[in-house]
Amino acid sequence: MSSQTKIRIPEAFVNLIEDIRLLKSDGQNPNKMSLKQQEQVWVSLQKYGWTYPILTNKDGVFADGEQRAAVCKAHGEFFAPVLRLPVSEVDRRLLRQVMNKLKGKHQRALDLEEYGRIIEAGEKDNLENLLRSIGEKLPEDLGGPVESMGAVPETYELIIECRDEADQKAKYERFVAEGLKCRVLNL
């Protein structure tokens, strides 16, 4: 089946290849991607291949990788490595939460050093495309404006839950009028 895809699949995953059109969504995945992020997923899959498989329960209901599968299907790629795990329904949902949320927090100074190494290696355009897909830009000392970095200080964060978009806008405008530096985050 690996000959039925143009995306590179590591030898260790070859025995896991399945037709992803047969997998199932519960329709309740809280992880949503912008079109730019979907484009970056596609670029990443084309460049690096399947670095880790899609995860499902034994019945083929997504636990992780639903967005990657959707991106592949949109590009006519229908085969991917799928790891079916013998997990209960609640564990499948917990696994989805873990895979979506436990990613760590980037330290700005180390990110800047990493950006510099990527730029030195000649991949500035790819880095800019990736950052743009998540609403960030290169800082000024690396070729972009500092204020557009979009980073929240390492130790200080405040998330305010709003009833709807109008409430979000009203709160944002009130806080900006009070002289606070704010940014909008839709989860």
Number of continuous helical runs: 6
User: What is the mean predicted local confidence, pLDDT?
Assistant: 85
Based on CA atoms alone, the radius of gyration comes out at: 19 Å
Overall number of structural domains: 3
User: What does the overall shape look like?
Assistant: globular
Largest sheet: 4 strands, mixed
Terminal CA distance: 37 Å
| CATH class membership of the largest domain | Alpha Beta
Notable traits:
187 residues, alpha+beta
How would you explain this protein's 3D organization?
Helices cover 39% and strands 9% of the residues. It has 187 residues and is an alpha+beta fold. It folds into three domains: 2-101, Conserved hypothetical protein from pyrococcus furiosus pfu- 392566-001, ParB domain, CATH 3.90.1530.10; 105-151, no CATH class; 157-187, no CATH class. It has a four-stranded mixed beta sheet. A hairpin with a 4-residue loop joins strand 2 and strand 3 (62-64). Helix 1 crosses helix 2 and helix 1 packs antiparallel against helix 5. The longest helix is centred in the first third of the chain and has 14 residues, at 35-48.
